Automatic annotation (TrEMBL):
First-listed, main subcellular location of the protein, grouped into a coarse class: nucleus
Positions annotated to bind a phospholipid derivative: 567
Protein's organism: Acrobeloides nanus
Listed GO MF terms: nuclear receptor activity; RNA polymerase II cis-regulatory region sequence-specific DNA binding; zinc ion binding
PROSITE patterns (UniProt xref): NR_LBD (PS51843), NUCLEAR_REC_DBD_1 (PS00031), NUCLEAR_REC_DBD_2 (PS51030)
Polar residues bias (residue ranges): 13-25
Keyword Acyltransferase applies: no
Protein name: Uncharacterized protein
DNA sequence: GCTCAAGGCCAG
DNA sequence: CTGGCCTTGAGC
């Protein structure tokens, strides 16, 4: 490599702390570690990452920029349309858009210390650690085909340079990492806070910064999406369309009046002293949606039409205890800017480049590993607190489903679908996706056979995987064995996920032209994945054992879902909101009946 | 003790 | 204002 001398991670130098080997990161025992972010690109500008800063892996300059901005409470404004591209070469040009992107990518204002205390560690440490562990692990996954690892991040393959419009998303294609960071963190921290709830006594009092800080920010963000009519999923999806609540606030939003500076500036989250222990709402089940205003029905095509959309009407869910201090959310929820959406999957997805690359690229760019990483963290967290296996499963499922949705809505292809399609697809496929994720995690030994719970109890991994059922354990184990025999790997897993998610059969019977169009888009994508996968496997879709297995998994998911539905009817534990809604979709009841009757003598009314 | 993210410094 | 390099210090 030509740039060898720059390859030492910056931020480390010999002069520090009498460390005997200042260059330990490059060689020796720690060599592996350095590799973990040596290849990473800053999710904000694409420059070389120097470590975790304010919540995620970023470069040194974005770190500095972010720090200065937050410390000095700077208010930038954009001379253009708030969608300036931000990359290494032009990041200086528009600080407004740069900062916006920082936030959007998940940098945390609350990690900037108000008291300016140096050194030490903060609460994000655990997240960094978990994230690092995962990245590392995933580096070691064998790739399978001739391609070598070097290509993993070379996603330059992927893009034509179309749109700079929507927050530069497209032009960022070269950034390999962390479009997921934010979602990931949210999920991560949510769990922590939720745990606090369940243990949590002390918390409420000792958090000086709580009232307007970090926490409420993230709670808002996290729960903002819930909707009044029980449409959590829709809300979760639509909320995300323009990303982060924190940002739409510097001055003129979409040409609206500029004088208004909501009290809840981003900086309010800047937290005082270090151990900012955030507390959580004193409810241990996910918040319900009573505090929402009615949602004017229009989220279906929401993201196409900025003015028609009623993001501003969506009042985020804030736990009642802290709800007092914010009505400022509406400002947050304004869409950042319209998203052009003639783009169909087809155009979004690149069209040239060899088929088998598609999965490679998807696998890398879609950050499936990160999603799974958070599943692992979720499990770890809940398992230490809960002792009842079913309750444990419910909570894990609820949380991971949130993560699933966050993941999906950020996924480059999925997010281009009409909202309506997104809803249907997720409604349709969540249980299968769950099973695939957990099964793959199991195969990767991210979970062992059983999961140790509190009070010395345990939960079979198969139970958790199968949505809390233990009836199908053998069937699942058999599937696992077969997957293993076929050397099911990361690429196969990626194919499984995408083939499942993009299930065009949801429109099998539809006749409206709109739906047919949707169906076609999804189908095209689906078949492209299928071809790529077959190509990768040197096989034909018609004769792929792994494809048969996927069908089996889908069947299994269906059964498991029915079972879960049944169990939820009679459980003593509260069924979390989102899960409940996913289970109780009206159109499913018939299906539950038909699936259940052959297996068991379950009788519905 | 060592780590490594956070703050500080300052030439450009 | 930027960003590369330097110092700190809680937590492991
Ligand atoms: Zn950067
Ligand atoms: Zn700009």
């Amino acid at each position: 490599m030509a740039i060898v001398d720059h390859s030492m991670p910056i931020g480390h130098h010999q002069s520090t702390a009498a460390s005997t080997n200042g260059h330990s990161l490059l060689n020796g025992q720690n060599g592996i570690r350095s590799a973990s972010f040596e290849t990473e690109k800053c999710p904000v500008c694409g420059d070389r990452v120097s470590g975790y800063h304010y919540g995620l892996l970023t470069c040194e300059s974005c770190k500095g920029f972010f720090k200065r901005t937050v410390q000095n409470k700077k208010q930038y404004s954009c001379a253009a349309e708030q969608n300036c591209p931000v990359d290494k070469t032009c990041r200086k040009r528009c600080p407004h858009c740069r900062f916006q992107k920082c936030i959007q990518r998940g940098m945390k204002v609350e990690a900037v210390r108000e008291d300016r205390m140096r050194g030490g560690r903060n609460k994000f440490g655990t997240f960094y650690k978990a994230d690092r562990a995962l990245r590392q692990k995933n580096l070691k996954i064998p790739i399978g085909v001739s391609q070598n690892g070097a290509n993993l991040n070379g996603s330059s393959v992927i893009h034509t340079s179309n749109g700079t419009y929507y927050n530069g998303q497209v032009s960022e294609a070269h950034v390999s990492s962390s479009t997921q960071d934010q979602a990931a963190q949210l999920a991560y921290f949510e769990q922590h806070n939720r745990l606090k709830v369940s243990n949590g006594y002390e918390t409420l009092l000792q958090s000086p910064a709580v009232s307007n800080s970090a926490f409420s920010e993230f709670v808002m963000q996290r729960h903002a999406p819930y909707m009044p009519n029980g449409d959590s999923l829709a809300a979760l999806l639509s909320h995300s369309m323009s990303d982060d609540p924190l940002l739409h606030r510097s001055g003129l939003v979409n040409g609206m009046s500029s004088g208004f500076h909501p009290p809840a500036s981003v900086y309010s989250a800047c937290v005082k002293p270090e151990p900012f222990d955030v507390y959580i709402a004193p409810s241990d089940t996910p918040v319900t949606s009573e505090s929402y205003l009615a949602q004017p029905t229009n989220y279906i095509n929401g993201f196409c039409n900025p003015s028609a959309v009623s993001y501003a009407d969506m009042v985020p869910m804030v736990p009642s205890t802290i709800a007092g201090n914010d009505n400022r959310l509406s400002a947050h929820l304004l869409p950042v800017c319209p998203i052009p959406t003639e783009k169909s999957i087809d155009t979004v997805f690149y069209s040239g480049s060899t088929p088998s690359n598609i999965l490679e690229v998807l696998s890398t760019r879609s950050q499936l590993e990160t999603k799974r990483a958070h599943n692992v963290v979720t499990v770890a967290n809940f398992s230490s607190t809960f002792s009842d296996p079913f309750q444990f499963c419910l909570l894990v499922m609820e949380t991971t489903m949130n993560q699933q949705i966050s993941w999906a809505r950020n996924e480059e292809n999925f997010r281009e679908l009409r909202m309506d399609d997104q809803l249907r697809l997720l409604n349709r496929t969540w249980s299968t996706l769950h099973i695939i994720d957990f099964t793959y995690s199991f195969l990767m030994r991210e979970f062992s056979y059983t999961i140790q719970l509190a009070n010395n109890r345990e939960c079979l991994t198969s139970t958790l995987t199968l949505l809390g059922s233990d009836e199908f354990q053998e069937e699942w184990e058999s599937i696992c064995n077969q997957l293993q025999q076929h050397q099911f790997n990361r690429i196969d897993y990626t194919a499984y996920i995408f083939l499942t998610l993009f299930d065009y059969s949801i429109y099998r019977d539809s006749s409206s032209t709109e739906e047919l169009q949707s169906r076609e888009g999804i189908e095209v994508f689906h078949s492209r994945i299928l071809r790529a996968w077959a190509d990768y496997r040197n096989s034909h879709p018609a004769s792929m054992p792994l494809l048969d297995l996927l069908q089996q998994i889908k069947q299994l998911a269906k059964k498991a879902q029915c079972n879960l539905y049944k169990k939820c009817q009679s459980t003593e534990f509260p069924v979390p909101q989102l899960l409940k809604e996913m289970l109780e979709q009206p159109n499913l009841s018939a299906e539950y009946k038909s699936v259940l009757s052959p297996i068991s003598s379950y009788t519905t009314s």
